[in-house]
């Protein structure tokens, strides 16, 4: 178990002690997408869903999700986030919405989990708002694209 940081020498789950680490600027970018029927995609794009502005609400939900990561993932640290940004790209050819979540802080631990949570909550919100039109939507390709800061420096997919 020595390769996993969230277990002690006896195999018990622990929150990693970051008290000895230096504070650095930390940033992470996560992406994901949701594929849907043409009818559903066109309604989202035109702002024609009965529940309202799907992408606007999903953006706010993603930001809120990133901020609440420590409440959802048991061993995550509570972080003071300085930036959460959600952006969308719409692919008319595949009826797909791509979402990205950028999270930034100055701290002793990274924000990868916050970026991944933000993009997941954003996509789940799109699903929730659109499920009356298309229950067959697929949430796809969720992954960390980049992280910076800390002792390990830059990691990029």
Describe the structure.
By secondary structure, this protein is of the alpha+beta class. It has one domain: Alpha-Beta Plaits (2-Layer Sandwich), CATH 3.30.70.640. The protein has four helices and five strands, in the order βαααββαββ. Strands 2-3-1-4-5 form a five-stranded antiparallel beta sheet, covered by helices on one side. Helix 2 runs antiparallel to helix 4 (112-130). The longest helix is centred in the C-terminal third of the chain and has 19 residues, at 112-130. The mean pLDDT is 93.
List the helices and strands and how they pair.
Elements: E1 24-35, H1 38-46, H2 54-67, H3 69-72, E2 83-91, E3 96-107, H4 112-130, E4 138-148, E5 155-156
Antiparallel strand pairs: 1-3, 1-4, 2-3, 4-5
Helix pairs in contact: 2-4
Structural class: alpha+beta
User: Strand portion, in percent?
Assistant: 25-35%
Seen as an oligomer or otherwise, the chain set is single chain
CATH class: Alpha Beta
Give a count of the beta strands, DSSP E runs of length 2 or more. 5
* Rg on CA atoms, Å: 18 Å
GO biological process, one term: Mo-molybdopterin cofactor biosynthetic process
Protein name: Cyclic pyranopterin monophosphate synthase
Pfam families: MoaC
Active site: 128
Offer a concise description of the structure.
The protein is an alpha+beta fold and 157 residues long.
């Amino acid at each position: 178990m020595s390769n996993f940081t969230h277990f002690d020498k006896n195999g018990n789950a622990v929150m990693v002690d970051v008290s000895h680490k230096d504070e650095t600027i930390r940033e992470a970018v996560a992406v994901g997408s949701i594929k849907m029927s043409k009818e559903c995609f066109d309604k989202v794009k035109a702002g024609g869903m009965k529940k309202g502005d799907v992408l606007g609400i999903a953006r706010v939900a993603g930001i809120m999700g990133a901020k609440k990561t420590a409440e959802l993932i048991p061993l995550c640290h509570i972080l003071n986030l300085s930036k959460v940004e959600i952006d969308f790209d719409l692919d008319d050819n595949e009826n797909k919405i791509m979402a990205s979540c950028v999270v930034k802080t100055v701290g002793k631990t990274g924000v990868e989990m916050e970026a991944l949570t933000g993009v997941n909550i954003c996509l789940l919100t799109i699903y929730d708002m659109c499920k009356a039109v298309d229950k067959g939507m697929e949430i796809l390709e969720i992954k960390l694209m980049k992280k910076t800061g800390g002792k390990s420096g830059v990691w990029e997919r």
